[in-house]
Amino acid sequence: MNDSLNEKEIQKKVRREAFKRNWLLFRQSTLGMIGLGIVFFFFILAILQPILFLTGVWNESVYHPVVGYEEIKVNLLVVECPDEYPTEKYESVEDCPGDGEITQRQIYNPSINPQVGDIHEALLQPSPPSSRHLLGTDSLGRDIFSQIMEGSQVAFLLGLLSAIIGVSISTILGTIAAFYGGRVDAYLMRQSDLVLMLPSLPLLFIISAFAELKIWHLAIVLGVIGGLGGSVITIKSQALQVKVKPFVDSARITGGSNMTILFSHILPNVAPLALLFMVFSVTGAIASESILSFLGLLNIEMSWGIMIYLSQTDGYIFSGMAYWWLILPAGLAVTFLAGGFYLVGRGLDDVFNPRLRKR
Amino acid sequence: MSKDVLVVKNLNMHYETLAGDVHAVKNVSFSVKEGESFGLVGESGCGKTSVAMSLLQLQADNAKISSGSIVLDGQEMVGLTESELRKVRWDGISIVFQGAMNAWNPVVKIGEQIREAIREHYPNNSKDENTEKIKKLFDIVGLDHSNMNRFPHELSGGMKQRAVIALALSCDPKVVIADEPTTALDVVIQDQILKEIKKVQDLLGLSLIYISHDIAVIAEMTDQMAVMYAGSIVEIGPTDQVFSNPKHAYTKLLLESTPSVVGEKKKLRSLDGEPPSLIDEVAGCSFAPRCPDRDTSCNPTLDMELIESSSGHFVDICCSEGK
Amino acid sequence: MNKNVIEVKNLEKYFEVNSGFLNRNKSIVKAVDNISFEIPLGESLGLVGQSGCGKTTTARSLCLLDPKTNGEVKFYNTETKEMDDIDNLDETDLKKFRRNIQMIFQDPYESLNPRWTIKDIILEPLNIHNIGSLNDREEAVKEILTTVGLTPPENYMPRYPHELSGGQRQRVSIARTLVMKPKFVVCDEPTSMLDVSIRISIMDLMLNLAKDLEVSYLYITHDLAVARYMCNRIAVMFNGKIVEIAETEELLRNPVHPYTKRLISSIPVPDPQYQRQEYELNYDELDKIIKNNPDVDMVDIGGNHFIATHNVKDSLY
Description:
The complex is a heterotrimer of chains A (359), B (323) and C (317).
Chain A: H1 7-28, H2 30-54, H3 60-63, E1 73-79, E2 101-103, E3 119-123, H4 144-180, H5 182-197, H6 200-210, H7 215-227, H8 231-243, H9 246-254, H10 258-294, H11 304-313, H12 328-352
Parallel strand pairs in A: 1-2
Antiparallel strand pairs in A: 1-3
Chain B: E1 4-17, E2 20-33, E3 37-41, H1 48-56, E4 63-72, E5 75-76, H2 82-88, E6 93-96, H3 110-121, H4 127-141, H5 157-169, E7 175-179, H6 187-204, E8 207-212, H7 215-221, E9 224-229, E10 232-238, H8 239-244, H9 249-256, E11 306-310, E12 313-316
Parallel strand pairs in B: 3-8, 3-9, 6-7, 7-8
Antiparallel strand pairs in B: 1-2, 1-4, 4-5, 9-10, 10-12, 11-12
Chain C: E1 4-19, E2 25-40, E3 45-48, H1 55-62, E4 70-76, E5 83-85, H2 91-97, E6 101-104, H3 118-128, H4 134-147, H5 153-156, H6 166-178, E7 184-188, H7 196-213, E8 216-221, H8 224-230, E9 233-238, E10 241-247, H9 248-253, H10 258-266, H11 283-292, E11 298-300, E12 306-308
Parallel strand pairs in C: 3-8, 3-9, 6-7, 7-8
Antiparallel strand pairs in C: 1-2, 1-4, 4-5, 9-10, 10-12, 11-12
Helix pairs in contact in C: 3-6, 4-6, 6-7
């Protein structure tokens, strides 16, 4: 060991080595790396949007996910549909009006009086993917791609916030239950049992009926519900394992107070498990948000769940592949990001649980 | 002149890991005669358990025998397929593992677990024949017959260990490997188990390979012994001779670092530093960096090789010149 | 007249065991059953026995980890130079007292917090008891690391336990234990998980430090040979009782109690020519005798050699 005797330098070196070692372990897990890639991809999307606005590449009035608008017009021929089918132009009633055509009845504008054979300029909303709108626009002319990016921001914010809140609660409760035992432990375990018993989604429905839930509110609610549930039990069992280790005895013999032992010894050793839980709970948070938004129970301006909700209320959801860009990007985004976080959790599991590692 | 029942020649074994190949067994050669007791002594990481696993080819997935030969009762074992090996395992050679008493399946009765082993090799035996066999085995190891129908948790540590020995003997092997069979046991029980093993060996004419880090146990249990360090054998010979006339510096150190309850209270020696990494290929004597007896007569740069110093007593070349 | 560092009188530690349906059957396990001994300042006592004999329970009670059920334990107070009964100490005194009692554990892998640096591990006792300035504390850490052979200390201070070998970790444990210069250290088989070739170096380190710092050890082990190396006196425990206690060489030359004889006769000797003396012992009979004669004081047979006779003179001896 020919390092200089500078303690600070050695400490930095030690930390770097530890990080590198953990990174190499994580890299071994294919699932973890795939997950990390997905999460990273969506993270780029999330920060891309404000960058595009700030640098002026995107004009906010056009591309804003909520209030942006671009008028896209398309020329349509006014036709009249026959009473009987088939005719030489149309096979059946579904073929009239065809692509690029429109009937007089479909023009909802009393101020103009188009005649058969005229060219009518109509607004194309929602519009399919084009060079200006990579994923098309929705029924209000808003850019879908921008909405996806906005939804990504919402997902990250919500996911991480609720995960942090939840894990903080369950770690503190679990460690306290393990450390003090007795009645405190009994109470906390019954409380966890109760929360586990309650079906979380219906509970969220009820809560959203009483309170207007914005993203912050939802994060806190999800965090608290998640934090009081089953993870308390698992963290408690981990804390119990730490509690009986000789180094805790050693601290006690030296004269360490209960608080010292709790915070300096037990908590740091429970932290890896807590981190794991945190990553997994992000998955649940993202999924919950999309379900609640889909049911219209949330007061959010834009998220992936809202996108799917809108496509349902506008009636496009059963249109099959005709308006796919209104449903697929949002749906896939939820699936992939939630799944991505889960895979990262699996990768972290390999790092923290030596027995699961391949050699 | 009894014949050799196991001959190991230039065995090399390594583990493939992320960090590189770990050469756990380097050029190990020894032979065991019929009815003889052979001891393998060394500290953690010296490769003795790896040798044991190689003999049975029960190594981990990432372990590979790179070269060498293991001839059991005239049959070469290296290179056999798994199904061929299964015929030889337990039938020709068996093992009492380290911590084996904790390896019993907790939800199956002891007798049933031994029966399983016998069925594998003697599929034509009837159930009664097997029961008789197990009863005889229990007699040999000193266990009451009623234990056949007990679950592992109902037996004490010493009893479980006897049952493990019975399991190792169940298919009438010619060679039994005992890998630290008494480490977790109290010294009084250890004494009983060791006596038991000796009795069994005499009774059945078995060859025994005894692996331990405890040199006192090796002294009492073995006729021939080898001292291992960092994957290689540094000294090998009759136990009496190795103890009365140790040639290698490491052997001397082991002998002089073991406190004893008999005799005068002696000043004991100790060793500094760490065993070398088994990943890097070290040229020459692997013990040289830590050797406390180094002087000008040493040959640390020569490749390790066992040289005969007196009849049947070999020592690594580094310590063999005029010592 | 040398003062004692610890005086133990009639120490008892009982455990209640609930069994049966709805925990109706309560039985008492006497893990430590009425033991007494003294350790003079600067001397060491070995506590030898098989697993389950009560030696670890005794250690934990003396370190104030688990409260004792009964008995009197007196420690030497370095300030007043008198013996203090630990029952008479209040919270603050007790905390001051803990500066003088420490324990070294068996498992080098589990006795250091894996998430703390070596420096923090050794600093902890100094921090808890608020000793000296921050600079002083750092100097003390460097000093003790050098003393235990981990030099240069700056190389080890920022590292984590998993980067060190078993032997190095035990040295860290020793450093942490002795940085406060305690008077009494309980050692729970600190070398049994280490390689044979480095055990002696650890034991020598402990012996030297004992001389330099005037520390007394209560050395717990199942290995009589190790106890011989480390201790002036040895006490043999069986089923919660001390059955024999004497100076080390005297005990090995002249064992009197049948259990001691059995113990000594079972230890393998590193000499192929040596024939051990066989000594059989009927445990059940001994158990019965002990049960029928509890609480019999130990008898001095001369030369500071005490044995538990259990009131049976001739049939046992």
